[in-house]
Amino acid sequence: MYAIVEIAGHQFKVEKDQKVFVNRLATEEGKTVSFDNVLLLADGDKVTVGAPAITGAQVGAKVLKHLKGDKVIVFKKKRRKGYRVKNGHRQSLTEILIENIVASGAKPAAKAEKATPVKEVKKAEPKKADAPKAEAKPAAKKEKASQDLSSLTVAELREMAKAKEITGYSSMKKAELIAALS
């Protein structure tokens, strides 16, 4: 008896007591896993094909160990250009042992639900009166006026000159703006 089952995005032809290397599974070593996505079952001359999967069929396996595959060298070159890139890659694998193949009557495996973070809904707080904001702006201007004018930038001095309605501030230099503002 054999089955074609989809494991970690790949299709494998498996039999009982067969060892298979699959892409890394998020299961600890020694634990058992079951795969519900059985695409084909063959028992002697009797072949059952799913559309796309067979309902009630299941393949049980035990995780033996996690390992890395052989290194694959990726070498890129463009002739006469001096372009050469060498990269290596080792695929993360899991070795599993197929323990049983159930043709029908298997309970569907409980899919691990992803822990979705509970979003806290922030309630809109009533807006405070605009009076504190309006008071903060004149206080900031008073602080600017009390500062030494030479420590301000030309742009800030021009804004102050514009606020005081000084004419010709756009062509004034920094020293002239300080003299006009004081």
Automatic annotation (TrEMBL):
InterPro entries registered for this protein in UniProt: bL21-like (IPR028909), bL21-like_sf (IPR036164), Rho-like_N (IPR011112), Rho_N_sf (IPR036269), Ribosomal_bL21 (IPR001787), Ribosomal_bL21_CS (IPR018258), SAP_dom_sf (IPR036361)
Pfam families cross-referenced by the UniProt entry: Rho_N, Ribosomal_L21p
Region (Disordered) location: 112-150
Keyword Mitochondrion: no
SUPFAM superfamilies tied to this protein: L21p-like, Rho N-terminal domain-like
Record bears the keyword Ribonucleoprotein: yes
MF terms in GO: rRNA binding; structural constituent of ribosome
Extent of Basic and acidic residues compositional bias: 112-146
Entry keywords, A to Z: Ribonucleoprotein, Ribosomal protein, RNA-binding, rRNA-binding
Similarity field: Belongs to the bacterial ribosomal protein bL21 family.
Subunit structure: Part of the 50S ribosomal subunit. Contacts protein L20.
Designated name of the protein: Large ribosomal subunit protein bL21
Species name: Xanthomarina spongicola
Record lineage: Bacteria, Pseudomonadati, Bacteroidota, Flavobacteriia, Flavobacteriales
